[in-house]
Amino acid sequence: MVYFLSHKNEEIYSYTYRALNGDVSKIQVVDLTRDSGVRVRPGYSYYGRPFEPVYVPTKIMLSGPKRPIPDIYDAFGLLVSAKFRDVVESFEPNVHQFFPIELVWEDGSHAADRLWFVPCNRLDTVDRAKTTFEFRNVWFLDGSKKELVFNRSQIGDHHVWIDKFIVMPNPAISERLKAELDAVGITGAHYQQFREAD
């Protein structure tokens, strides 16, 4: 199986957040070169390529009541704990980016230390013969009952990646990586499961 990884929001309200330094509007990937996948544009979206670090914030303010911050949180992208980073690094050392971020409350007090997680594998991993979505140079996952199927040989030995042909992707992760994240008790994770074929 392959899983899309995102943040499972269990908070009562949708609380706002804002960067206290850096300039999120100027963040972009290091390499904007076109390839056969989804066009890589300036901005902090996940394209499977590393970010230039210069404008990445180091401090983000969270609104709302003081509350526990899970291992995976969503603010501009996936903010993850050191425990999450250690698991990913044990599978794919020195591949992905983890930018240190301090989360603070509106009164300035410390909320949590997290890392902005940037997946840096850009792959073509969808099985075109078995997937029932229509491929029109890219995959538009429209929420219909069609099936998205991944191909093991195209994934190879990767454990975290962005599929370069999926519009607005979440990071995809391997079953082995998900099992290890579960084993260490990672909180705040939401997984969407997809079939994997030979």
Structure description:
With 198 residues, the protein is mostly beta strands. The chain folds into 2 domains: 10-118, no CATH class; 122-197, no CATH class. 12% of the residues lie in helices and 29% in strands. It contains 3 helices and 12 strands; from the N terminus they run βββββαββββαββαβ. The strands form 2 sheets. The chain has a 6-stranded mixed sheet with strand order 8-10-11-1-12-9. A hairpin with a 3-residue loop joins strand 4 and strand 5 (78-80). It is globular and about 55 Å long.
DSSP, total strands: 12
Percent helix range: 10-25%
Rg result:
17 Å
As residue ranges, the low-confidence spans are none
In round numbers, the mean pLDDT is: 93
Give the distance, in angstroms, between the N- and C-terminal Cα atoms: 11 Å
The secondary-structure class comes to mainly beta
| Subunit organisation of the chains | single chain
Q: How would you describe the shape?
A: globular
- Lateral arrangement of strands in the main beta sheet: 8-10-11-1-12-9
Number of domains: 2
Our estimate of the beta-strand percent is 25-35%
Task: Give the biggest beta sheet.
Answer: 6 strands, mixed
Total number of helices: 3
**SSE topology string:** EEEEEHEEEEHEEHE
SSE inventory with pairings:
Layout: E1 2-7, E2 17-19, E3 59-62, E4 72-74, E5 78-80, H1 82-91, E6 97-105, E7 110-118, E8 122-123, E9 149-151, H2 152-155, E10 160-163, E11 172-174, H3 175-183, E12 189-197
Parallel strand pairs: 3-6, 8-10, 9-12
Antiparallel strand pairs: 1-11, 1-12, 2-3, 4-5, 5-7, 6-7, 10-11
In short:
By secondary structure, this protein is mainly β. The chain contains 3 helices and 12 strands.
